[in-house]
Amino acid sequence: MNRSGLTILDNICLYGTTHLMWLRAGDAYRSALPGQFMMVTCGDSEASYPDPLLGRPMSIYGLDVNEDHVRVGILYDVVGVGTRWLSRRSPGDVLEVLGPLGNGFEPDLGLRNMLLVGGGIGVAPLIWLSEWLVDRGAVVALIAGARSIEGIFPKELLRPEVEFISVTEDGSLGQKGLVTDPYRQLLSWSDQSFACGPDPMFEALHAILLEVRPTTELQALLEARMACGFGVCYSCAVFPKTGGAVKLVCTDGPMINSRTLYG
Amino acid sequence: MTSNISEIDLQTQLASGGKTELILKNPIMVGSGTFSNGVELSKRFDIDKLGAVVSKGTTLRPRLGNPIPRTVETAAGMLNSIGFQNVGLSAVVNDYAPRWEKWNTPVIVNIMGENFSEYIELVEALDGIPGIAGVEVNISCPNVEAGGLEFGQDPQLAGKLIKAIRSSVQLPILVKLTPSVADPRIVAESVAKAGADALTIFNTIPGMAIDIDKRRPTLGAVFGGLSGPAIKPVALRHVFLVSREMDIPIVASGGVVSGTDVIEFIMAGASAVQVGTATFVKPDAAWQILAELVAWCDSNEVSSLSEIHGAAK
Ligand SMILES: Cc1cc2nc3c(=O)[nH]c(=O)nc-3n(C[C@H](O)[C@H](O)[C@H](O)COP(=O)(O)OP(=O)(O)OC[C@H]3O[C@@H](n4cnc5c(N)ncnc54)[C@H](O)[C@@H]3O)c2cc1C
Ligand SMILES: Cc1cc2nc3c(=O)[nH]c(=O)nc-3n(C[C@H](O)[C@H](O)[C@H](O)COP(=O)(O)O)c2cc1C
Ligand code: FES
């Protein structure tokens, strides 16, 4: 965990309202893992406090590391004041960023067939996970769902080895329906699943997992309202439906096994 | 010439006399509920540099806290309705106090009871435990149904509570007051007379937000407490009003984000300040604020905080 000024290298609108930003990062990011996140300050830091005040949690979309540089990417949807401010920054501008934070995905590298499911902007942390898994010899399928074609990540930017299944609610691209449909179909093939999206999606995926392939696990990357991002404010609580202990998404997660959440 | 921290006299005293002494090496504390129990950040930053640490609000038994959403950002601040998610008294005594004992900075346990006897049970269990340097009695939490504010808005009840606590323990007693009173001097006088060593002024200001898409309150618990830079002018007025009439040490809490905020509170009569919401923005905010305070003293040729204490009164 390290808070520092990161210089913007690139900031473009990639599709629909979704933007891609690359930043020059420090050595603290060399050991970052897929599913970890950062708190990005989305306001000028000239005054004694930024406006808006609190950092915005953003998953690490990508990491590009070599001997003389570290670059970290975020893929973000413009939904409010902070992300709009982000979308207007230019290369050369400096952002205050705290990271890397949290516990990311924990793929079992002894397994082979990996099934990834992203709902909406939930695809952001899965792109890097797909690359990371391919590099380690896994076979990867990625299901991306959105309301319409505007919300679907461009297939060309994926590794060619990754099987990509897109689903839209209005049928404007790929299958018409929800991510749960292809999930049910592919689950018997898969050895381990990873998902990021809204809470009801995890619950639906977990129910299918218990029905179709209860011997495998689903790792869910949760979202929550955060204030600090490092475990001191208790804003980001999740109450597992199992009745188990309250978890903090920022420090216990954001990856939490679906069994811990739903039994 | 730049002086360093050891050349400027930053020491401040919150409780004096015999067993209940509480002296801080500098006036920068971290506020309750904004630093957890300190363990996380003590691994990253030099905890011993801080004046004092105040624990998360502790109740007799562990609590799960309020439903989500628990926070929402507001103009220059935020609302929270965490609702006392905490590990409970016995974990504080058995698991945390032994770690705090190793620190070279005092830890003050913030406590919240639902009734009179719970407060007494809490302080009696904390008294004499190595690693616990004092208690901060929260009679001002807007985020619980019972206790909290009930005591904080009633000078008689508050006085009676603090008197009972004073007669049960040797620990230094800070009393955390509420902003939700017409005249802060009345409760302040009552608890000071009852034997409080210092007053923390103040807790969050009750407020709410509405989600216009859902047509419902944004926070799961409906109401929350406002904190951050937005509330500093209100806290400053309360500190000023109380310090003008009373001699008791005052710990200011509300919107401190910079060294100059600290100077303002000290000039209004505060002996120390708590850094709260600022920590969420930058985990090392308290350390940076301390450095800014030192730099200000340096460039203004202030060699001891006593030179500016209450200067604006
Ligand atoms: C661990 C984690 C990782 C995330 N990763 C990404 C990512 O990779 N890409 C991405 O686009 N978004 C991501 N988000 C969501 C992102 O943080 C919010 O969209 C962002 O904070 C909105 O900020 P804003 O100022 O633009 O919106 P605001 O004006 O603050 O609010 C607009 C909307 O955003 C939602 N929102 C606001 N604050 C938060 C918050 N702290 N957490 C969650 N939702 C919030 C609100 O429900 C509201 O409807 C992630 C959230 C978490 C918790
Ligand atoms: C998320 C959060 C949790 C808090 N929890 C407590 C608590 O448990 N007990 C307490 O006395 N005050 C609590 N407070 C109040 C702070 O200690 C402080 O008094 C208040 O936030 C004002 O200071 P600030 O503007 O610097 O944050 C909490 C504040 C926040 C923002
Ligand atoms: S966001 Fe503060 S504890 Fe998780």
Overview of the molecule:
- Chain A is α/β, with parallel strands linked by helices and 263 residues long.
- Chain A folds into 2 domains: 2-101, Translation factors (Elongation Factor Tu (Ef-tu), domain 3); 113-262, Rossmann fold (3-Layer(aba) Sandwich).
- Chain A is 17% helix and 34% strand.
- Chain A has helices at 81-87, 124-135, 180-186, 199-212, 258-262, and strands spanning 2-15, 18-24, 37-40, 56-59, 62-66, 69-77, 94-101, 113-119, 139-146, 163-168, 175-176, 192-196, 218-221, 237-238, 247-248, 255-257.
- In chain A, the strands form 3 sheets. In chain A, strands 4-3-7-1-2-6-5 form a 7-stranded antiparallel beta sheet. In chain A, strands 11-10-9-8-12-13-16 form a 7-stranded mixed beta sheet, sandwiched between helices.
- In chain A, helix 4 (199-212) links the parallel strand 12 and strand 13 (218-221).
- Chain A is globular.
- Chain B is an alpha/beta fold.
- Chain B has one domain: Aldolase class I (TIM Barrel), CATH 3.20.20.70.
- Chain B contains 10 helices and 16 strands.
- Chain B has helices at 39-42, 89-101, 116-126, 149-152, 155-168, 184-193, 232-245, 259-268, 278-281, 285-299; strands spanning 12-15, 22-24, 28-30, 52-54, 71-74, 77-80, 107-111, 134-138, 173-177, 198-201, 205-208, 210-211, 216-217, 223-227, 250-253, 272-275.
- In chain B, strands 3-4-7-8-9-10-15-16 form an 8-stranded parallel β-barrel, surrounded by 6 helices. Chain B has a 4-stranded antiparallel beta sheet with strand order 5-6-14-11, with no helix packed on it.
